[in-house]
Design goal:
CATH topology of the largest domain: Uridine Diphospho-n-acetylenolpyruvylglucosamine Reductase, domain 3
Strand content: 25-35%
CATH class of the largest domain: Alpha Beta
Order of helices and strands: HEEHEEEEEHEHEEEEEEEHHEEEHE
Shape: globular
Bound molecules: flavin-adenine dinucleotide
């Protein structure tokens, strides 16, 4: 009741400011695996000022909204829940802030999709995040997860991050220790990011993007409903290899299936529920532990699944 009352307070304020919100909005639509119940309030800021206004309003009421970018590494629970989601999909924009002979610095809003940043680079021959070509992530999410592929990671191209943390807004220059495998350790909501891209020429970049895409299409179930890698790769090994060795490729529970193409992906074949995905994850974890003594750690983040 108290929670509902607080959410009502935030809602009223945001309505007064004309900030877009939706009540009892289904989460499935906003996650790439297309699973999830409804949340009582989802908010869609379109500008940095709106995002700050939402975050401050929540902070004043001691509410912590869950931030969603592309929803491409997210499992949302099956049941409806009372809470708030800050959906950054409309917080988009890219601008050049500095240009030198060999480099170009871009300021990009957190909700901009990584593929839009790559397209921007393609038009100007700017190389940076193309190792993520085809990944349905937002820039903010890619930074938060320190997304990586083909030996590259976001940490290498991020120069500055604009964060909202406990009512404070500031630019941070990340240091090496702020990054770890699939995580940017600094707390807070990422509002904007400054990226440093290298001028490599349009043709060279086009080839690079094509090569990365081809490789990805070959190895991953791209185009299926998934949330990317289920588990982090353990030191010196691959979660997919271990799960495959346990004979679990193609294992199905309900409409959730361990991909036949890549065992560290789970596909929603139609009406999969979060409970089915969690069962498959538990099975993969137990099997890998039993057979190899390795405890896999989830890479996917959870929302209203009863897991932190
Ligand atoms: C087909 C496919 C291929 C993929 N391939 C790769 C790959 O090669 N490499 C890789 O690393 N990942 C991969 N992923 C996983 C996923 O795309 C990445 O983890 C990505 O970084 C998630 O970004 P997102 O915007 O979708 O984040 P979301 O899924 O929306 O959120 C993920 C987490 O980040 C937090 N978050 C999101 N935005 C912000 C913000 N602005 N501020 C603070 N926190 C925020 C969320 O609260 C959540 O905890 C793949 C996924 C798919 C579906």
């Amino acid at each position: 009741m108290l929670l509902q009352h607080k959410i009502e307070g935030v809602k009223k304020l945001l309505e007064e400011r004309n900030i877009e919100l939706k009540e009892w909005e289904g989460l499935a639509e906003y996650t790439t695996i297309k699973i999830g119940g409804r949340v009582s309030l989802m908010i869609f800021p379109e500008t940095i000022e709106e995002a700050i206004c939402v975050l401050n309003a929540c902070f004043e009421k001691a509410l912590e909204p869950f931030v969603i970018g592309g929803g491409s590494n997210l499992l949302a629970g099956d049941n409806d829940f009372e809470g708030m989601v800050l959906n950054l999909r409309k917080l988009k924009g890219i601008k050049v802030v500095e240009e030198g002979k060999d480099i170009c610095k871009l300021r990009v809003m957190a909700g901009t999709m990584i593929n839009q940043v790559i397209s921007f680079g393609l038009k100007r021959g700017l190389s940076g995040p193309e190792f993520l070509a085809g990944v349905p992530a937002s820039l903010g999410g890619a930074v938060k997860m320190n997304a990586g592929a083909f030996g590259r990671k976001m940490a290498e191209i991020v120069k500055k991050v604009r964060l909202w943390r406990n009512g404070r807004i500031f630019w941070l220059v990340p240091q090496e220790e702020d990054w770890e495998y699939r995580n940017f350790k600094q707390e807070g909501v990422i509002l904007e990011v400054e990226l440093e891209l290298k001028k490599v020429g349009k043709e060279a970049l086009r080839h690079r993007v094509c090569d990365f895409l081809k490789e990805r299409i070959l190895k991953q179930p791209l185009g299926k409903r998934t949330f990317g890698s289920v588990f982090k790769n353990p030191e010196g090994d691959f979660a997919g290899r271990l799960i495959e060795k346990c004979g679990l490729k193609g294992k199905r529970i309900g409409d959730a299936r361990i991909s036949e193409k890549h065992a560290n992906f789970i596909e929603n074949l139609g009406k999969a529920r979060a409970a089915h995905v969690l069962e498959l994850m538990a099975l993969a974890r137990e099997s890998v532990f039993k057979n190899f003594g390795v405890l896999l750690e989830p890479e996917v983040r959870f929302l209203a699944c009863g897991i932190n």
